[in-house]
Each structure stands twice: as C-alpha cells, then as structure tokens.
Design brief:
Blueprint (H helix, E strand, L loop, with lengths): L19 H14 L23 H10 L7 E4 L11 E4 L1 H6 L19 H6 L7 E6 L2 E5 L5 E9 L2 E10 L4 H16 L4 H16 L1
Amino acid sequence: MLPTFDDWTESTAPGRSGTRLHTIWRGMQKRCHNPKVEAYQYYGARGIIVSPQWRTFVGFLDWALASGYANNKQIDRINADGPYSPYNCRWVIPAINRARGELDRDGSYLAKLHGALTDEAVSAAIPKERAYRLVDGHGLYLSVSPTGAKSWRYRYRIEGREKILTIGRYPNVSLAEAREVHAISRQRVKRQLDPAKMKQSAKARRKKSTS
C-alpha cells in the first residue's frame, strides 16, 4: 500500500527546516501523497510517488547535496511519468524545467545530446585580447569575452532573419544544460516559434506576477 501524507516524518537535519531544500521536499510529499492539495491530481492521482529513500528529509538532503544542488536549480524528474527518486531526479535550471513538456516525456532525448565541446575544454577556455567563440554545433557556442566571462548562445534563423538567444553564463549553466536548452530552442524554431521572443515574454510575465 502506498504511504499516506501522514506517514511521512518531519525528521530533518539540524537547521535545515524552513530552508529552500526543505520546502522542495515538503512540496513533493504534498503533491504526491496528500489528496487535499490541488496539485495532487497531476501527481499522486497519476501514481507518481516519492521514493522511500526520501521518506525523511535527511535522506533527501544527502542526495541533493551530492547531486549538484544549487539555489538557481529546480528538481526535475527525468521520466515525467516516474517517481521522485534518486534514480529519476536531477537538478536543472528553470529554463529546462519549464519546457520539459516539449521533449520526450521519458527523458530518452538526453542520450542524443552531443556536440564538439567537452567540459574540460569549456572550463579551460581563457580570455584573449578579443572575444572569441567555442563552437559546439548546430548554432550553439560559448562566447568568451576579454574579461573572461563565458556565455552560452544559440545562433538561429527565423522568418528570414538571423537571431541570437543568450542561454546563460557558464558555470551557472553547464555544457549539458546549454545543450538541453539548445535542443528545446531548435524544436521551437522548427515550429516557427522564436525562442528569444519566448524568453522575453516569459521574463515579462514573471516580473508582472511579482510586482
């Protein structure tokens, strides 16, 4: 029998209750195991559960800190129909989390994300007198400025015009994350949707909702 919301313990690591990680942990429990929560219909009612390994906050905390957690990351289920578990979850930037529905639900697309660059090459890139690019492929490249700032960008054409989408700065956005945003953006361009305009519109909506 699946555990109910009341079965889950509030066991926490010292000083962690009320933190962002604790809030994420509690949110998973509620939407998966509490039928009174509105979001339950999209999670628990569909059979999505929280793994027994994360029955306590300490179990979740250990995984989170060892799996690349950062304040600019959100939890994501690799298989959108699978559980919240150490084997099916990862930390991603919001741009990926918001667009997951546009790619394969089972996460199989991740194995197809390849390019010319390596993590070592990106990390080792040093500034030069003039800005230069490290090309990964299909319009994705890393721009390195004379100050040493590194930024992921995607060059594309839409409606007969060349445009550039700024994906984000490295290392806040990793090579793997840049490739995933790039894959999402390429799919949008194929559907004649402008990813740069979509990014601007999303930013405007978030600003309006918090004002």
